[in-house]
Design a protein that fits this description.
The protein is of the alpha+beta class and about 180 residues long. The protein is about 60% helix and about 10% strand. It starts with a helix and ends with a helix.
Length: about 180
């Protein structure tokens, strides 16, 4: 029994380390499990919390920490990649879906406006990459998608595109940029 208890504690300790938890006391187990493993009850979760729920919560916390660090590492390369796309294309729409199959009403509206202006534009589907989805928001310092860029400049989102289209300003801008591209 002593070996079985030590073995169980060791297995739980390894699981904690793998999940990024540095103390066995970070887990809250049902009292029957805790006592059979020789552990005390600690933490903010109720003692009746099933073990798989506690493990799941700890895994989610650990994954969030890892994603946060990878997002920081990817920040500069993502910014550079977005900057390259914006500068190399006359008209770019960062959107949900693509111009043939928009997956958001706002993205669809901006696509239809650009098509009404006879614009040839690049569409970038932000749903394919979460780093891109967050990166474009940081790049423009604009919280929503879609985001329209013309001639390397951030124009705005759906509301701004609608206003500029209704005033005729967007049509003029698109015609000028398209003429320069030829």
């Amino acid at each position: 029994p002593e070996f079985a208890m030590a073995s169980s504690q060791f297995a739980l300790h390894v699981a904690c380390l793998l999940l990024g938890v540095h103390s066995l006391e970070a887990f809250v187990l049902p009292s029957s499990c805790a006592s059979s493993l020789g552990l005390r009850q600690h933490g903010s979760l109720a003692a009746s919390q099933p073990m798989h729920t506690v493990l799941s919560i700890q895994k989610q916390r650990s994954r969030a920490r890892l994603e946060g660090t990878s997002a920081l590492r990817m920040k500069a390369p993502m910014h550079d990649a977005i900057d390259k796309v914006v500068k190399e294309n006359k008209i770019v729409l960062f959107m949900k879906g693509n111009q043939d199959f928009p997956q958001c009403g706002f993205s669809n509206t901006v696509c239809q406006i650009l098509k009404a202006c006879n614009a040839q534009f690049e569409d970038i589907n932000v749903l394919e990459n979460e780093l891109l989805r967050q990166g474009i928001k940081e790049y423009s310092q604009w919280p929503t998608i879609p985001q329209l860029y013309i001639d390397g400049e951030f124009i705005g989102g759906c509301d701004i595109a609608i206003d500029m289209y209704q005033s005729g300003e967007l049509v003029e801008l698109v015609e000028r940029v398209m003429a320069e591209a030829d």
